[in-house]
Amino acid sequence: MERQLRGWLRYCTYFGIYVGAFEDSNLRVTAHNVNSTSSNFAIDTRKRAQWCRRAETCSTLMRQRLYLYLLTLVLGVLYTHGLITRATMPGISWVAATLLYSLHVMAVLFILLEALHKQAQHDRFLQVLEQIEVTLRLRLQQKVQHEVLFNGLRQLIAYLFVFSMLGFALFALSTIWLPYADYFWHGIWLVIIIRIRLIQLIVYLCILRHFLQCLCARLRSIVAARLTLRRQILDVDCERLCSLQRLLAVKEIYELLHKEFQLLNEFAGWSLFASISSYLLDAICTLYWMLLSIDGFVRRRHYEIAGLFMLLPLVVILWYLMYLCDNCQQLVRIYIYFLHLLILILHTSRRALCPNCCLN
């Protein structure tokens, strides 16, 4: 899973969303690939390959950081130029447009800063995702359905990307005849970066939700197995031992998932807050300007057509992001419910086996 995600994140580096090294499969040298009669030659070859890979990684990280510094410089120049240009053509919505443009700039600035200073947390997040998948598959014998998950994610990314780009294109075409478009042409690339960042976080939440669903399904099966064992006259030691191992694996996976949500807040919390805030203000301003256009405001005629193309993708992405967050909270409640039920079953079984013992 980590390899697929890093493959997708390769394209995010062009927008300043991610900074990280990507392994080159041509530089991987193992003992099976080394045709030599001496073990020392094989060790030296692997050391040289590791050194080349480390040097390539450092060079890649340096280029990406320089690229982020360049993006930050361009962001500052573009923001200043937008303020100077906009000040020469004041309108009734000057304050709202300037505030919205400033929020977009602030959100992109948070994204760039997180990519620079939260790289370790982001990489750790990807590594723990791989660890959760392996633990689910090996220790819990739970079918993760890796291919089904990534096929669904590919379709989701394609739908959201096409829907967003189509909305941007239609909005740009429909704003050609407008008297003015405020900061649209200065902030179009800011909106694209924020949109890609939100799509990236949606993908992460989909993966975490899938793992929570697998964990709840396995915990439900454990509870069902315990209820079945209570109706049996004799218990089998190996089954009880297996159930104990599964409980320990469930505990470990839940701790890893809890850690994943903490890491997600660490490396994407501020940018997520700023992006959602700018999106909510963007939706409110767009809806207000659409109402002004319908009412016949002279500077905003026919804006309801252009605003609809921008408002619809924005609302869909915000709604889906909030739906995923709520869905994850519901799965956590389901997990807690089954955990309490399992504790009650174990407590009842212990009292049935030892009726004379003193239990709190």
UniProtKB/TrEMBL annotation:
The chain crosses the membrane at residues 66-85, 91-116, 156-177, 183-208, 267-291, 303-322, 334-353. It is found in: Cell membrane. It is a multi-pass membrane protein. It comes from the Eukaryota. InterPro entries: 7TM_chemorcpt (IPR013604). Pfam families: 7tm_7 (PF08395). Keywords: Cell membrane, Membrane, Receptor, Transducer, Transmembrane, Transmembrane helix. Belongs to the insect chemoreceptor superfamily. Gustatory receptor (GR) family. Gustatory receptor which mediates acceptance or avoidance behavior, depending on its substrates. This is Gustatory receptor. It comes from Bactrocera dorsalis (Oriental fruit fly). The gene is LOC125778229.
